[in-house]
Request: fold
Amino acid sequence: MTVATKAFQPRPRSVHDLLFAPGSRGVLIATSKDPDAKRTLVVTPPAGTFVDGPAGPVAMKIPVTVAAAGAISRETRMLLALGEIDLGEFGRTVPSYLETLDSDGLPAVVTTVLRGVPMSVAYHRWLHTSRQRPVAEDFALAGGWLRHLQLATAGERARITWAGEVAGRLRTRWSGHPKLEAAQVRLAAADRQLRSHRVATTVVHGDYWFGNLLVDGGRISGVVDWESGARTGWPLRDLVRFALSYCLYLDRHTRPGHEVRGHHGLRRTGFGAGIRYGLLETGWLPDLVRLYLRTGLDTLGLPTTLWYGAALAGLGEIAASANDDEFSAQHLELLTSLPCRPLTDGAEPR
Reply:
């Protein structure tokens, strides 16, 4: 029996056994109402609970729905795959799998705890995203961690078919949608641009947004929630996802119709205004977004001019894969509202 197979054979121990063991203490740190909703706890079990694991707190994810159980199983497989890779000291920023427990017939996973505070905490502080310096630091931290991961896990080079793959998945999910054809046109443009180049495939996190990045002492101390990860995939996926997610919420604390503080020309005018601003307009934030994308592409040995085509493919991927239908549809419509390409990096789009 392989290690991966054993991970999905729940031991006699259950979630209740761990949570209610004498001396055990637990704190609920996250929950959600998504279709794949999970509850995440930090538990301090009695000493000796994990013979081969750490002493002290562990993290536990408990599924609320059957869909959540599937997500936990995917993350477990991914963590086991990461555990087989020699990441050196960098491996300390990735959770380690400890055990699968039974949760009323569904699998719950136990992992090591990573130190740090989610980058989202600082992101939503008053004026954080209105100032260039802290935003630049966020992009530098995210880009730096990603470069380490990609360099440590680089594999064979392959022609970039990512945009074409996204287009196929989008057709499957949104067949008959009135915006589908326009989305396909934009993904076809991205595919023509990306497909002419090759890149080394790498480990992919799959949901590399600032809410999954932990920061401690001015560095990325951990990256969590690997359920969308892949042992081998397109490194552009994570590069683009961070930039898009960072731009998406820039107007979160602004009243509808009002200009977003610190970003001249950006108003809260509907879903995705921050992404349009970051990709198409001028200002210090769009400059940072493009610099981050260009730097990431250059690190991968790719032309920096691919940044916009990669961004279109990234939007399509969210529209094709998001677990919330409304969120997915909003990205589909946002994609169709964008031009196939900008005239230049800093000019008005065509």
Notes: The domain at 117-337 is CATH 3.90.1200 (Aminoglycoside 3'-phosphotransferase; Chain: A, domain 2). Confidence is low (pLDDT under 50) at residues 346-350. The first helix runs from residue 3 to 7. DSSP finds twelve helices and twelve strands in the chain.
